[in-house]
TrEMBL record:
The lineage of its organism: Bacteria, Bacillati, Actinomycetota, Actinomycetes, Kitasatosporales. Residues 471-491, 505-545 are annotated as: Disordered. Gene3D superfamilies: P-loop containing nucleotide triphosphate hydrolases. This is FtsK domain-containing protein. The chain crosses the membrane at residues 72-103. The keyword tRNA processing does not apply. The keyword GTP-binding does not apply. Keywords: Membrane, Transmembrane, Transmembrane helix.
Amino acid sequence: MARRPLPRILSKDSAQIARTQLARSRELARTAADSATDVLHPLITVSRGLRRLASAGRRRWADTPKDKRGPLLFLVASVILAVSLVPYGPLLAVITMLAAAAWQGRERTPPDSEGPDESRAERLQSLYEALVPYFSSAEDPAPLYAHGGEWEKALTAHEFDDAGRVGHLVIRYPAYFPDGEPDARARIEQLLTAKAGRGREYRFAWDEEGNQLTVTVLPPLPADIPAQHFVTAPGETVLGFTDPSEVQRTLPLSYGEEQIDVPPVVWRTGVRSTEPHLLAMGHPGCGTSTLLRSIALQALQYGDALIVDGGGTGEYACLTGRDGVLAVECALPGALASLEWAAQETERRLIAINLARQAGDPPPPDARRPLWIMLDRPSVFAHLAAAEGRKDPQTLLQAPLRHGRAANVTVVVAEELESADALSDAVRQHTRARVVLGPVAPRQAEAVLGAPPHTTPLGYVPPGRGYARLGSGPVHRLQVPRTPDPYDDATSDADRQAVLELLPPRATAVEAEPTEPAERTELTKPTDLTKPTVDAAPVTAEATG
């Protein structure tokens, strides 16, 4: 019987045929996938757009404050109800939603990764060349900065504004640069300010650990926000407004016909305040009187104010005779008498609060009501007192300054920078909240605030523009709300009306009844005639003298 040969399954021809069939299958699958992608491309685009819209909605809901989520839900429900009641409303809503999803889900081209154009590259190269003498050393074997070197390695990030000037810059510098020395930093900041463009305000952030310097151009603060009622709690005073990145709080304000949210610089006073007193300094016309008027209008909502004006310009005449305004003194005798009363009032409050605590009772209301003592240019009174042989009015501020926090007494002093030497030691030591206004040099701002500002000064600043520092906190840019003197002819009608609306009403004077006619009236009353003669005789003799 003959053997039947085995089939050659794994022959060379069969293996080649198998590989060919596998390649055809892969090509067929790839073609089918491409065809399915082309057919389902609109559905994929809409799905991607819906996913992006949902993500945007979740981010919007997370960023919305909790107190505003209820009105937002009510608004969305109202829109859905209105759309459902409109003829063909649901259909139009679905079409609009699909169109928005298709627009959001479209394939976006990546941004151009090429470098800056020729003019911007020349500007960055000039910045690099200007930094070479400061960031290079002859002993460096591989210098990061060298004449004719490449700026791309040193200037790692850069942005330009619409005018073609530098708006943001990240600079690398070698580790041996003394970035801990203020003079070395000041030279670099002054150079970058000149090369990047004058007339703007820059913020310099030094990263000493990473050897990087971040330069950011700050937008100007709004200088035309009028005086108005601020949404604050008792004991909170709005000094002005600052950058959004500096504080974690915003205030709703009326800005013309719009409502905006502006980050404020809030100064807290009272028993639990760590900075119960304020010192504001600046050049003439910089806005220190405007700051004092703004503080006074806010303080009169919850307390009383005593104003001593050493300038004698009558800028606080609008507060004379108002409810809560105890006095507005412009002369030396009145200032001495008012401040002496304030010192005695501080001692009286301390005694009353101490007795109440010993008895286990709350402090009396007259000791809890805030008392504000505001002095504008006390150095003028110091010179007048020295000429007339009287005591300096600032010596009467020792008790309010030292014990004012416990007695709910707050002292606000405004002085010119040229007269800073005339301030007493008590004023310098106990005013830990500081404000400096106007175009001041960095060293002057550091002398007042205790720390240098992290921004470059400008040649021209509007009134009320400066810096503020509360205690040992950071230095903030500050813009005081526009609070001019309403009785000044140069004040606009809108600003005048805004300040007049904030003023308390006029205090009504109560006339004392005459003593002698009252006693005679008592004698003519019918009830007095029924009294025995022995009781009426002493009164009659007393009345007739």
